[in-house]
Amino acid sequence: MDVLVVDHPLAKSRLTAMRDARTDNGQFRAALHELTTMLVYEAARSFATEQFPVQTPVAVAEGTRLANPPLLVPVLRAGLGMADSALALLPESSMGFVGLARDEETYEPRAYMESLPGDLKGIPVLVLDPMLATGGSLLHCVRLLVDRGATDITVLCVLAAPAGIERLADSGLPIRLVTAAIDEKLNERMYIVPGLGDAGDRQFGGMPRF
Ligand SMILES: O=P(O)(O)OC[C@H]1O[C@H](OP(=O)(O)OP(=O)(O)O)[C@H](O)[C@@H]1O
Ligand SMILES: O=c1cc[nH]c(=O)[nH]1
Ligand SMILES: [Mg+2]
């Protein structure tokens, strides 16, 4: 599996704000928005483009546009905080939604929402979820996409744990991972260490469980 770590100084400073336990929900959401812009920008470097003539006020120039804008798929809840900034950079994109909540005892994802196009053949997909921990949630989401014919899937994360990366890689599914950092490990409650806590709760509120 191809893994890109976006370790730009500005990305690192937004990630630091997200890690800081003193950062409040509003500041956390703002840092996630900005970091997502940087992650999408880097992920899009390899997107296919096509050329077309564009009339400037002076002459005709060669214009560039994405040949095949990706379907954006935020994984609810936490991925919702990445949706707006991704769509701002990719205004031609459509958006699907997957809702998953990790069971607190088995750590397996429980699916509660699925709103995706039926046929994804030939459509690149950009999955948005800040956290790749055990990998169960993203694997579930990617399987939904592959079942619909997707063969070109980029997963955009803020933090990834080695165990989650290994699980996605071992699946053999057509995944590329773009993340701002790879952290050390998971704790006994399957939270990323040092991590940033629960990315859903830190945006939208809830009880700390780590
Ligand atoms: O790799 P995993 O072990 O599956 O864990 C990662 C998942 O956990 C978080 O969601 P969570 O289940 O907390 O739901 P939330 O977004 O509603 O908080 C996160 O946004 C991922 O989807
Ligand atoms: O560290 C973690 C692990 C799973 N989900 C989160 O939001 N954070
Ligand atoms: Mg959560």
Automatic annotation (TrEMBL):
Segments forming domain Phosphoribosyltransferase: 5-205
Cited Gene3D superfamilies: 3.40.50.2020
Molecular function terms, GO-annotated: GTP binding; magnesium ion binding; uracil phosphoribosyltransferase activity
Binding site residues for uracil: I192, G197, D198, A199
Any single GO CC term annotated in Swiss-Prot or TrEMBL for this entry: cytoplasm
EC number, UniProt record: 2.4.2.9
Cofactor (UniProt): Mg(2+)
Alphabetical GO biological process terms: UMP salvage; uracil salvage
Binding note for cofactor: Binds 1 Mg(2+) ion per subunit. The magnesium is bound as Mg-PRPP.
Regulation: Allosterically activated by GTP.
Superkingdom as given in the UniProt entry: Bacteria
Binding residues for 5-phospho-alpha-D-ribose 1-diphosphate: R77, R102, D129, P130, M131, L132, A133, T134, G135, G136, S137, D198
Known catalytic reactions: UMP + diphosphate = 5-phospho-alpha-D-ribose 1-diphosphate + uracil
Described purpose of this protein according to its UniProt entry: Catalyzes the conversion of uracil and 5-phospho-alpha-D-ribose 1-diphosphate (PRPP) to UMP and diphosphate.
Identification of the protein by name: Uracil phosphoribosyltransferase
Organism, scientific name: Dactylosporangium siamense
Taxonomy of the source species: Bacteria, Bacillati, Actinomycetota, Actinomycetes, Micromonosporales
Name of the coding gene: upp
